[in-house]
Write a structure and sequence with these properties.
By secondary structure, the protein is an alpha+beta fold. Among the domains are: 23-40 and 235-322, Beta Barrel (Elongation Factor Tu (Ef-tu), domain 3); 87-192. Helix content is 42%, strand content 22%. It contains six helices and 13 strands. It has helices at 2-21, 75-99, 104-137, 142-169, 175-201, 290-293; strands at 30-39, 42-44, 50-55, 62-63, 70-72, 210-215, 222-223, 230-233, 238-245, 257-261, 269-276, 297-304, 316-322. Strands 1-9-12-11-10-13 form a six-stranded antiparallel beta barrel. Strands 2-8-6-4 form a four-stranded antiparallel sheet, with no helix packed on it. It has a three-stranded antiparallel sheet with strand order 5-3-7, with no helix packed on it. Strand 10 (257-261) and strand 11 form a beta hairpin. Helix 2 (75-99) packs antiparallel against helix 5 and helix 3 (104-137) packs antiparallel against helix 4. The longest helix is centred in the middle third of the chain and has 34 residues, at 104-137. The chain is rod-shaped, with a radius of gyration of 43 Å.
Length: 326
């Protein structure tokens, strides 16, 4: 008795499988299969962790692109942004200081030393000119003349040294130091951009219009980084998914048209095929017989040509495939 019941159930399941997968006979150029509505959801999550401060939407709301969804407590992120801006200002100040050379006070000291040495050199030159005549007249000895000449030459060298120091002080830092300072400015600028981006992502906006399908947190709750807070389903992300047999897969192509029939709606909804799976959804280990081959099915997806509120994910539909529609 049990064996007969099992055989009956197996026959019923096999019949149901054939009815689902094999096409109907709606017309010469159309075949009908069962399918269902599928939705590709957008899960909106912050990139940082924090306490959920505000929630601007509820389940079932319709939102427009750019609408405010939620916001985390920005206190810590604002502090991080302020620190990044201070580092940026410090790096820019360092680069500016290295680019303009020594400080005005240091240059002022060098200018004063230069003026003093010029006076000293002028006096030494006068003494040197005077002893030149005296050595000719035999009034002073050769050693006295040599000492005065050496003193004049030393004054010349000291003035040249101060002038060289003054020229260097008016220059900026060495090229390698300037390059390092410039890189520090770039690093600080990236830190500011990153802090601004994190602050912006803590209060995200809707990237596209759609319906709010679910809300996972409430104000006051702690949200982990990357954990979705809101789930949105844009109308353009609704697809019709159905499966066809191995015999039928060669009769459809990308861009082909289908008609989606819903319970309670007299008119069909036009859809365009946007995806055909390359691999079979069910493949026996080894195909030994025609019966095993007929078990191969391929997943097809079609996008509705119009937005219909009745197309809700999970809803079963009947799909008529038009082999002539392109």
């Amino acid at each position: 008795m049990k064996g007969k019941i099992v055989k009956v159930l197996s026959s019923a399941l096999a019949l149901l499988y054939i009815l689902v997968l094999l096409p109907g006979c709606s017309s010469e150029n159309e075949e009908s299969v069962l399918g269902y509505v599928e939705g590709e959801y957008i899960y909106v999550a912050p990139t940082t962790a924090g306490i959920l401060q505000t929630l601007n939407v509820e389940r079932g709301d319709l939102v427009e692109a750019g609408a405010k969804l939620f916001a985390l407590d920005p206190l810590q992120l604002n502090s991080s942004l302020e620190v990044a801006r201070l580092k940026m200002a410090a790096a820019e100040s360092t680069l500016k200081d290295l680019s303009k050379g020594a400080r005005p006070e240091e240059i002022s000291v060098l200018l004063k030393q230069q003026e003093e040495l010029r006076l000293v050199l002028e006096n030494e030159k006068k003494e040197y000119d005077r002893v030149q005549q005296l050595i000719k007249d035999g009034v002073i000895s050769a050693s006295d003349f040599d000492a005065r000449e050496t003193s004049w030459q030393v004054a010349q060298e000291r003035l040249k040294e101060i002038e060289a120091q003054l020229a260097v002080a008016n220059l900026g830092a060495r090229e390698d130091q300037l390059n390092v300072a410039q890189r520090q400015v770039l690093i600080a600028a990236q830190g500011v951009k990153q802090a601004e981006k994190l602050l912006q992502e803590s209060a995200p906006l809707a990237v596209s219009a759609g319906s709010v399908e679910d809300v996972f947190y409430r104000p006051g709750e702690f949200v982990r980084a990357g954990s979705p807070v809101v789930c949105i389903l844009p109308p353009e992300n609704i697809k019709i998914r159905f499966f066809i047999s191995e015999k039928m897969v060669s009769t459809v192509q990308l861009g082909g048209m289908v008609q989606v029939l819903l319970s309670g709606r007299n008119e069909g909804i036009s859809g365009r095929i946007t995806f055909i799976s390359r691999a079979a959804e069910f493949t026996p280990p080894v195909i030994y017989s025609l019966e095993s081959r007929e078990k191969l099915v391929f997943m097809i997806e079609a996008t509705p040509e119009e937005s219909v509120q009745m197309l809700r994910p999970g809803l079963p539909v009947n799909v008529q495939i038009n082999h002539e529609g392109k």
